[in-house]
Specification:
With about 80 residues, the chain is mainly alpha-helical. It has 3 helices and 2 strands, in the order H-E-E-H-H. A two-stranded antiparallel sheet has the order 1-2. It is flat and about 60 Å long.
Amino acid sequence: MFPAIHDMPPPRAAATLDPVQLQQATEDLIAERNHLTAEAQGSGQKNGVNASANAARPQPAKNQIGGNGPAAADAAPAAGTETK
């Protein structure tokens, strides 16, 4: 069911942020992000490799039927081929 066309929500109780408050909030979020990134890079390194960078990389699927590699060749014959 859809609301009526002229059915408007009540006015907001709190005022929106003015441009100065919005700029300050944005700067605070950027500073916190930079702080957390630096902290994660400092504590997340193992053997010279950044663990957070490795966690973000997608890993290739292993042993999937129809995928590439030796596991796929052994798993099932290709569609349209005959077996003897």
